[in-house]
Every structure is written in structure tokens, then in C-alpha cells.
Specification:
By secondary structure, this protein is of the alpha/beta class. The chain is 44% helix and 20% strand. It binds adenosine-5'-triphosphate. Its EC number is 2.7.4.8.
Length: 200
């Protein structure tokens, strides 16, 4: 492969993925990048095609999915969203590690591609603690909370199955978890550098 391996961070909603990624970006601003997603929704004021999203119509997106161009797609409130393989390769070709915050289905999909990702699972201490974090975040209705907690049980079983991920972060204390996450990633980047991968 041409550039740095993409980095997949997977874990239940509320397990702390965004928190870890925010810290990683803050510490190494130029080493990582997010791929640009596709969407069928209309651009909002100030949003640019190819920057915030690739704005496409539904027929084109459906055809691209049939052509197997996407790693992950989802539908929210009547609009399609997705991450294309090409968008990941764009980040790679800039010498940056493409960060992907994706769900189990996306992990299963990306494993079938030639993108050769580093796969990390962010494991919450318990379902009860996950519930506390989500309640404290204040982002969920009772209904969406229940759905997320039910999905979490399945995701954790998948995450902890040997061979599914290269690394499991047990996200109890956020500072400890971040250190483990960062050290693992930095170690991986060093290995790739030693193998001649060019980084930004
Ligand atoms: N180790 C931790 N201990 C306590 N609270 C945490 C920890 N990690 C994250 N949090 C808090 O838990 C909440 C969920 O974290 P975050 O939003 O990062 O999760 P997420 O996995 O990105 O969720 P989603 O998939 O829904 O976006 C946030 O309010 C965050 O501040």
C-alpha cells in the first residue's frame, strides 16, 4: 500500500471514542486526518463540496454502493451518509493516517478491502457505566438510550472476540485510556516508518 495504514476506532456509543480522537488530534495535529464523507442531504450555508462532504444525489450514491465503492453507509432522517474507499485513500496519499470512527458493520466491511487498517476497540468498563456516561452527556432520549445500550452488548462481544481487533483499550480512567491508545498508535507508526512508509 502507498501511505500510512488507516486507523479504525470502534466501540459502543458513549464509550469515549470522540474523546480519545479529540486528544490525539490535539497532540499530533498534522499526522492524522478524517476522510470526507458522502451524503445525499442538501449542503447547508457555507458547506463546500469535497470539503465538508461530497454532496451527491441518491441515484449516484446507490450506484456507487452497488459498485462496492463504500466502506460504510447509513441512513439518518431520510438522507444517506457513507465513507468511500477513495476518500480514505485520499488521506493516505497526503501521508496522513486516516481516522475512521466506525461501527461493527463498517469494521467487517473494511476487513474485506485492501486498505489494511489498524483496528482498535474501545471497551467501556460496564454497561451501567456506559449508561451513566450517556445520561451525563445528555444527548439521548430514553428510547435512543435503550437502543444504544442494547447494541453495546453485541458490540462488546464482537470487540472482545480474539482476532477481531489488534488492540483493546479498556476505557475506565480517560487519562490512562488515552495514554494506552496513544502509545499503541505511536508504536504502530514507528513500525510503518521503519518499513519505509512516508508520513506527512
Ligand atoms: N473514561 C471516561 N470516563 C468517564 N467519562 C468518560 C470517559 N470517556 C468519555 N467520557 C464521557 O462519556 C461521554 C461519551 O463519550 P464520547 O462522546 O467520547 O463517546 P463516543 O464513543 O464518541 O460516543 P458516540 O459513538 O455516541 O459518538 C462524554 O460525555 C465523555 O465526556
Amino acid at each position: 500500500s502507498i501511505g500510512p495504514r488507516p486507523l479504525v476506532l470502534c466501540g459502543p456509543s458513549g464509550s469515549g471514542k470522540s474523546t480519545l480522537l479529540k486528544r490525539l488530534f490535539a497532540e499530533f495535529p498534522d499526522k492524522f486526518g478524517f476522510s470526507v464523507s458522502h451524503t445525499t442531504r442538501r449542503p447547508r450555508e457555507g458547506e463546500e463540496h469535497g470539503v465538508h462532504y461530497y454532496f451527491v444525489d441518491r441515484a449516484d450514491m446507490e450506484q456507487a454502493i452497488i459498485n462496492d465503492e463504500f466502506i460504510e453507509t447509513a441512513e439518518f432522517t431520510g438522507n444517506m451518509y457513507g465513507t468511500s474507499k477513495e476518500a480514505v485513500r485520499d488521506i493516505q496519499s497526503q501521508g496522513r493516517v486516516c481516522i475512521l470512527d466506525i461501527e461493527q458493520k463498517g469494521v467487517e466491511q473494511i476487513k474485506k478491502t485492501d486498505l489494511n487498517p489498524i483496528l482498535i476497540f474501545n471497551n467501556p468498563p460496564t454497561i451501567d457505566e456506559l449508561e451513566r456516561r450517556l445520561r451525563k452527556r445528555g444527548s439521548e432520549t430514553e428510547e435512543s438510550l435503550r437502543k444504544r445500550l442494547m447494541a453495546a452488548e453485541v458490540e462488546i462481544a464482537y470487540g472482545l472476540t480474539p482476532g477481531n481487533f489488534h488492540k483493546v483499550i479498556n476505557n475506565v480512567d480517560i487519562d490512562v485510556a488515552y495514554e494506552q491508545f496513544r502509545d499503541f498508535v505511536v508504536e504502530e507508526l514507528k513500525k510503518q516508518e521503519a518499513q519505509g512508509v512516508h508520513f506527512n
